[in-house]
Backbone:
């Protein structure tokens, strides 16, 4: 698990760095255009792809922080004794969802690679490079959800609406 | 009864979608008891650029889309972009059959026809055009809205390009983020860009390459009657839509001029240079892709059939 | 499958997964996998269908997530976080406190003013919600404001983005419905400003009913000299960033989406000038922005295909055809169309909604004798409200991401409702006095 956490952290750092780079790249390209230089329209294309990579790279890390929003309506009214078990079952369901996604987005990646599919913007981007981030992301997400099935903490707190 | 699912790349307000929907109605009316096409929607049902791959993989049976949207998978589509023949001529001389054949082998789809042909592009601008020594427009310093279809050509014209979706062009023109854009002879009025674009440069270049493609496995599971009916109707609509668009071109030109747009022409010599530059960019792109993917033998064939060399 | 079965099936799936506590993004994805297998699977065995359907889902996600339209979200988030973590925000709001004296709920008013300015100019409801949420909510909670006084105004003003120009969605609506773009844009101005006024009045009323909601803590009174200094040193430089962003957009030097990145760099420079930028608070800012960006993008990743499934399965077009098929009083038909937009808006993105509804609604509106520009403004209002409609309005989730730990979805729902009521009131007023929308465009004729 330590090893998986390390990978997730590294990917999150990559996402954070990308975010800052995208910011400077957009400012650079828009300034160049305003001043009448061509710059490179690829900057926008890669900023757009950056959003996909950022989402895929930081999602597993965010699972650990419980940063993906969920709704505590049902989990809040469950009896205290049953709530932790139920939360673990739901985390198990999340793992299952992620594993399905790993399999089929992986298959989509291979298919795109075989056909040589491209995403056509300012350049022809091989689609498998984009799709390929998905199985990795969902596999790591599944690994992170497993901590809420087997670890000491649970995903849900059961405290919806208690604070006011 | 054969049931066929279909989607179209553009929203319903565009004339091209209207053509497609009318054609589908025609097929359904004449194919009663034989075949029924169910249109599932436009870009809201499957993303505009995801539709070609969806029909190839069998998610839908039939798609109405510009070929350029999957040009990287079927490079031969550029023969239509830079064609000097009409869809009907391409069908008569065997070009359409070759186009269909490469679609089948490369993309697992049948290419049924080239709809709304005979429509070409212009560059429109908010400012007066400047010309170089050779009489060709000089776009140095002009901020031009870009699109993968004519990217190579615009680079050759020295323009400063900015990529954006068609839906963002209106505000970009309004704010001066771009001062020029390319579009077909028709449709500027629908998009209301004529509020800002005041000059149009002739000659036209390129062709729209909107076609109907059909998943090959689904096609083979159709009854021979259905196949014949769909193929015949699409071929008929090549002529029908071509004629209708020629009228639209005249109508839109009149309306644009009435609203104060100036049509500027280059000299015949400059026009020749300009159009050749455009066509070379498209054929060059096709050649480059074919060199990577194989199938160079089609290059000369298509050049003969679509470019009449 | 009949449209109503499809609709029920898809909604039940996503609602079910969310209800039991599956994260929103995964709930959408799980529902999508099942739905896509059924509706987009084509022919063949279940495995072939799954592979096709879910493969399509993966492909659909690429353009919906990697689009420049979403760029204001991470950029404005980053801007807000840097503002907050470097202490520049605290500096500015303390100064405003002293400048505005004892006006109760003053930061809520500041939020309405700032939110109106930002949402309006950026044209991005989500980006503006992200900026104000990360900026204002922590400051207001620190000063003892109750949650709804901070969250409500932000959710409310976020929706002004599409009503007041520049508004890419208004341009799009005008294009799809063949309306005069300029007229529709101008028609949104008065209703948009009116709505901002409603929000201000609402805050005043809430402060009067419950004085504890926005505590009127004592602030040192300031001399005129001190006031001038506060204004010059603590307020104007920050506001100049906002003004700078506005100028960039107005002069055509940057698109609204690009300007968000300029704002971000601007705040960074300002933090350097004030000597407030440290490695530590920079990392904190990036981390904060990354959290909410990732959360929101993954929800969009999931919900985009859900929109497509509703459309592809015929569920949404069936609903539209069914509900508009009755021969009813024009006003009732208007409310029916409004209701459909609200329902679809809970699950669909605004572009898909427009593509689906415009071809049916606008011809119908014409036969009912409505002014189409007026109807366009009402449509924009419905789109705006649906963005904050519990339980799934996307802005609500963005808000959850940026607000303090311990803020529940219920807190956010409760905060959103009075501000939604303001929009509804505006719709009512527009029905009674269409001139609220039509007066300004009529001057141009
Ligand atoms: Na706006
Ligand atoms: Na919504």
Residues:
């Amino acid at each position: 698990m330590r090893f998986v956490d390390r990978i997730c952290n590294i990917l999150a750092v990559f996402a954070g760095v990308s975010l800052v780079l995208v910011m400077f790249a957009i400012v650079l390209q828009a300034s160049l255009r305003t001043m009448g230089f061509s710059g490179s329209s690829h900057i926008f294309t890669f900023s757009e792809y950056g959003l996909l990579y950022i989402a895929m790279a930081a999602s597993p890390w965010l699972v650990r922080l419980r940063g993906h929003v969920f709704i505590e309506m049902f989990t809040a009214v469950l009896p205290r004794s049953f709530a932790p078990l139920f939360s673990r079952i739901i985390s198990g369901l999340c793992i299952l969802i992620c594993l399905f996604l790993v399999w089929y987005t992986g298959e989509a990646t291979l298919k795109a690679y075989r056909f040589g599919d491209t995403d056509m913007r300012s350049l022809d981007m091989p689609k498998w490079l984009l799709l390929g981030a998905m199985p990795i992301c969902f596999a790591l997400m599944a690994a992170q959800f497993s901590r809420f099935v087997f670890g000491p903490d649970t995903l849900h707190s059961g405290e919806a609406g208690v604070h006011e | 009864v054969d049931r066929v699912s279909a989607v179209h790349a553009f929203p319903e307000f565009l004339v091209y979608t209207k053509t497609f929907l009318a054609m589908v109605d025609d097929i359904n009316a004449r194919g009663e008891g034989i075949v029924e096409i169910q249109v599932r929607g436009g870009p809201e049902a499957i993303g505009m650029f995801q539709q070609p791959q969806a029909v190839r993989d069998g998610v839908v049976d039939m798609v109405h889309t510009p070929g350029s949207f999957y040009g990287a998978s079927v490079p031969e589509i550029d023969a239509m972009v830079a064609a000097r023949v009409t869809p009907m001529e391409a069908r008569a001389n065997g070009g359409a059959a070759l186009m269909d054949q490469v679609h089948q082998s490369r993309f697992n789809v049948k290419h049924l026809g080239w709809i709304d042909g005979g429509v070409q592009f212009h560059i429109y601008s908010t400012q007066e055009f400047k010309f170089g020594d050779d009489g060709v427009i000089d776009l140095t310093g002009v901020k031009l809205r870009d699109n993968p279809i004519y990217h190579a050509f615009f680079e050759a014209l020295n323009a400063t390009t900015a990529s954006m979706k068609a839906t963002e062009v209106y505000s970009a023109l309004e704010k001066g983020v771009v001062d020029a854009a390319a579009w077909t002879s028709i449709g500027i009025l629908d998009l209301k860009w004529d509020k800002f674009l005041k000059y149009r440069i002739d000659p036209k270049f390129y062709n729209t390459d909107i076609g109907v493609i059909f998943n090959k496995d689904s096609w083979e599971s159709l009854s021979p009657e259905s196949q014949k009916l769909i193929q015949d109707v699409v071929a008929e609509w090549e002529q029908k839509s071509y004629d209708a668009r020629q009228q639209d071109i005249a109508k839109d030109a009149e309306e644009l001029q009435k609203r104060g747009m100036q049509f500027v022409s280059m000299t015949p010599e400059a026009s020749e240079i300009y159009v050749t530059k455009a066509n070379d960019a498209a054929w060059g792109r096709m050649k480059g892709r074919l060199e990577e993917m194989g199938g160079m033998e089609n290059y000369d064939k298509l050049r003969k059939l679509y470019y009449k060399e | 499958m009949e449209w109503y079965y499809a609709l029920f099936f898809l909604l039940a799936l996503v609602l079910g997964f969310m209800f039991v506590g599956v994260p929103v993004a995964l709930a959408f994805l799980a529902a999508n996998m099942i739905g896509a297998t059924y509706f987009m699977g084509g022919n063949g065995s279940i495995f072939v269908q799954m592979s096709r359907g879910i493969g399509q889902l993966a492909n659909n996600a690429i353009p919906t997530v990697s689009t420049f339209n979403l760029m204001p979200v991470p950029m404005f988030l980053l801007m807000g976080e840097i503002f907050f973590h470097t202490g520049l925000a605290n500096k500015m709001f303390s100064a405003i406190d002293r400048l505005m004296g004892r006006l109760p709920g003053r930061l809520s008013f500041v939020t309405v003013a700032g939110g109106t300015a930002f949402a309006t100019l950026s044209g991005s409801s989500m980006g503006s919600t992200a900026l104000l949420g990360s900026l204002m909510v922590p400051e207001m909670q620190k000063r003892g404001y109750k949650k709804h006084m901070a969250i409500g105004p932000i959710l409310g003003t976020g929706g002004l983005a599409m009503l007041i120009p520049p508004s890419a969605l208004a341009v799009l609506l005008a294009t799809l419905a063949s309306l005069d773009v300029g007229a529709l844009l101008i028609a949104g101005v008065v209703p948009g400003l009116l709505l901002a006024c409603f929000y201000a009045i609402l805050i005043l009323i809430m402060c009067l009913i419950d004085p504890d909601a926005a505590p009127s803590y004592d602030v040192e009174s300031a001399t005129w000299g001190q006031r001038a200094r506060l204004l010059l040193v603590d307020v104007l430089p920050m506001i100049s960033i906002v003004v700078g962003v506005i100028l960039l957009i107005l002069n055509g030097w940057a698109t609204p989406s690009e300007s968000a990145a300029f704002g971000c760099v601007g705040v960074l420079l300002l933090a350097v000038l004030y000597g407030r930028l440290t490695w530590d608070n920079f990392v904190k800012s990036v981390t904060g922005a990354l959290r909410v960006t990732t959360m929101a993008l993954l929800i969009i990743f999931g919900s985009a295909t859900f929109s497509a499934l509703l459309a592809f399965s015929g569920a949404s077009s069936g609903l539209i055809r069914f509900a508009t098929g009755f021969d009813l009083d024009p006003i009732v038909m208007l409310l029916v169309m409004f209701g459909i937009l609200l329902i679809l808006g809970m699950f669909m993105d605004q572009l898909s909604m427009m593509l689906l509804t415009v071809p049916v609604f606008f011809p119908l509106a014409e036969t009912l004798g409505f002014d189409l520009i007026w109807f366009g403004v009402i449509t924009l209002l419905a789109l705006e409200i649906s963005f904050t409609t519990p339980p799934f309005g996307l802005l609500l989730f963005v808000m959850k991401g940026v607000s303090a730990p311990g803020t529940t979805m219920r807190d956010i729902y409760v905060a959103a409702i009075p501000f939604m009521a303001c929009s509804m009131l505006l719709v009512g007023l527009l029905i009674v006095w269409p001139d609220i929308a039509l007066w300004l465009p009529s001057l141009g004729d």
